[in-house]
Specification:
By secondary structure, the protein is mainly alpha-helical. It has a single domain, classed as Four Helix Bundle (Hemerythrin (Met), subunit A) (Up-down Bundle), CATH 1.20.120.50. Helix 1 packs antiparallel against helix 4. The radius of gyration is 16 Å and the shape is globular. The protein has 4 helices and no strands.
Length: 136
């Protein structure tokens, strides 16, 4: 069973970012399945790396589009992206150092991070980027 199921209500109205968000959902769900099957630290660490790498690329794409569109909350959004990446890195270090088991707190963080970020923060740029892309 997937931890997160994509819903149309998560769409920011920009195909590229919706598709990237879907990949992030897929990566989170894959990590959930690996951990559920076994507590193999190396596999989880690898999955967290995959998620972090893809998310960095996604954030860079979003930030470039926001800058091009003249989005007025770009600096705020960049700061949120930076904080989220720091939190992912912290969780990865805790997993690798066995200071925190893979537990529901990690999954809640991932789910809330993704869904709250999309539904609250990314929706803020939706109209601005849609207008900018339609003007081109």
């Amino acid at each position: 069973m997937a931890l997160i199921k994509w819903r149309d209500s998560y769409s920011v109205g920009i195909d590229q970012f919706d598709e990237e968000h879907k990949v992030i959902v897929k990566l989170i769900n894959e990590m959930f399945e690996i951990v559920k099957a076994s507590d193999i630290k190396i596999s989880v660490s690898y999955e967290v790396d995959q998620l972090a790498d893809y998310t960095r690329k996604h954030f860079a794409n979003e930030e470039a589009a926001m800058e091009k569109a003249g989005f007025n909350l770009l600096d705020e959004h960049k700061a949120i992206h930076k904080k989220l990446m720091e939190e992912v890195t912290d969780f990865k270090e805790q997993i690798e150092n066995n200071t925190a088991g893979i537990n529901s707190a990690f999954y809640l963080f991932l789910r809330d991070w993704l869904l709250n970020h999309i539904l609250e923060e990314d929706m803020k740029y939706s109209d601005c980027l849609s207008r900018a892309m339609n003007d081109n």
